[in-house]
Specification:
The chain is α/β, with parallel strands linked by helices. The protein is globular, with a radius of gyration of 19 Å.
């Protein structure tokens, strides 16, 4: 069996969405790996740890290193080496797509398999409230439409992420209906809805935390609206997110979080290139192979 990993390349972003948990402190930004160490990380994942699905995320991966596109595109070219060497290697990109115009998308063809964009509502006032529209980057919805059309024309698989919070709760049925009616243009393959999860920030939690009853009630309504589409719709509640939480952080260390009897504990690996095999890595982060296989096993079937 091979495995998948979620690589959070940078905490930097072009937007400032209210519910986002990224740490943009000076200390956090200083821990971001150099481009050469990012390449080294990818090499280790593929060659040493049998990772065959890498999701490139952030922050915003197109501005790694604090530069627009340059380092990102160089990292993509490094990944091309392994796409040629390992035909079963799958690369996914989670982006706000601000910088993914058609010329840039063309550079990703044959390397990135699926691109995911987050869309929490089609209501402009709510987009503004969440932070998707900014003074510099306006018209999030219009840009989303064009990017989805371009990605489909170029042959990318496409996926949506939506975070369910009290802020967008009353607009989610409208969103599901919009996507259902527009999918002849977008051809979205998958759509994953997340219950907002606390990251121990009382100010954000007061705005965005949503109880289980309301979360599950809206998932039923969304499922009904999308039931006759060919979109693969999934929902991830807080329990599933906690049980499966495993991220490769922007400092090159793998983070595994557990919660036992209400107490949260975080385990951090050494930087990933210090491991020559998976057993050493899993031992350091207190993660069993069985659990890793269950939540992060990957098959091309």
């Amino acid at each position: 069996m091979s495995f998948s990993i979620y690589y959070m390349l940078t905490p930097r972003c072009l937007l400032n969405c209210g519910y986002c948990f990224r740490d943009t402190s000076r200390e956090s930004l200083a821990r971001e790996l150099s481009l050469e160490d990012k390449k080294r990380t990818v090499t280790t994942l593929v060659e040493n740890l049998d990772i065959r699905k890498i999701t490139l995320s952030g922050g915003e991966p197109t501005i790694i290193g604090g530069v627009v596109l340059k380092d990102f595109l160089e990292l993509i070219e490094h990944i091309r080496i392994y796409k040629k060497k390992y035909p079963d290697l799958r690369i996914e990109l989670l982006s706000n797509a601000i910088l993914l115009d058609k010329d840039i998308l063309l550079k990703l063809v044959g390397i990135v398999d699926r691109i995911t964009i987050t869309l929490d509502t089609i209501n402009e006032d709510v987009l503004n409230e969440i932070g998707r529209n900014t003074a510099t980057y306006k018209d999030y919805l219009g840009r989303f439409r064009q990017r989805m059309i371009d990605m489909h024309e170029l042959g990318f698989e496409t996926k949506l992420h939506t975070v369910i919070t009290p802020v967008n709760y009353d607009y989610l049925e409208e969103l599901a209906t919009f996507i259902k009616q527009s999918n002849y243009l977008f051809k979205i393959n998958r759509w994953k809805f997340y219950q907002y999860m606390t990251y121990d920030d009382p100010i954000k939690d007061a705005i965005y935390e949503i109880d289980d009853e309301r979360y599950h009630a809206i998932t039923l309504k969304i499922s009904e609206i999308l039931s006759k589409t060919d979109i693969d719709v999934t929902f991830k509640d807080n329990k599933l997110m906690i049980d499966s939480m495993l991220n490769l952080n922007h400092d090159g260390r793998l983070e595994h979080v557990t919660i036992d009897d209400g107490a949260k504990k975080k385990y951090l690996s050494k930087q990933i290139w210090n491991y020559s095999n998976l057993d050493e890595l899993l031992k350091d982060i207190n993660l069993s192979l069985e659990k890793f296989e269950f939540y992060h096993g990957f098959s091309h079937e």
